[in-house]
Amino acid sequence: GAVVSQHPSRVICKSGTSVKIECRSLDFQATTMFWYRQFPKQSLMLMATSNEGSKATYEQGVEKDKFLINHASLTLSTLTVTSAHPEDSSFYICSATPPPSYEQYFGPGTRLTVT
Amino acid sequence: AQSVTQPDIHITVSEGASLELRCNYSYGATPYLFWYVQSPGQGLQLLLKYFSGDTLVQGIKGFEAEFKRSQSSFNLRKPSVHWSDAAEYFCAVVPDNYGQNFVFGPGTRLSVLP
Description:
heterodimer; A: globular; B: mainly beta; six-stranded mixed sheet; four-stranded antiparallel sheet
């Protein structure tokens, strides 16, 4: 089956620094990748849709300048949390869709802790 | 408002007992429907999906789900629960006019008693 990886799985950073999270589709090409945020004991909240070769589409209320998304290739999307603050601490999950499927394959998630 | 609901926040069952997790949606047309499972600190694993055709779909790990158009429901079932089934379960919907974007339900946490 389709496999999506994320790196790193856990990251701790200091307030004010930036953190980059990578999402890779390992055995398929994904023209579209999705980034979600999940707070403890809550559901997934879609942050943005990442399209290869074009700008990401952000959901309402998500700061574009804070959460920079780059979909550099058909197998790689990155999420950079800029000038991170403790309130950015969360579980970030990416997913990818092999066209023309509607099925999303999820990465294992990245636990970000900002101190 | 259009939404996906999972009425049960937390369910506890005994190992070996049957299980039904409820999911309802409020989109007009028949959307694409999915059930995912998430273990603590992990990503989501697809259990099963419904696009069209037979309304009873079989998934992995012995799970099945039934789509009922009249009730706008897609309930997940398992005849005999195993301790390893303890996890968070999410129903997800792709509304027919939302492109590929998923709308997730709030999740149901399943606890299994020995």
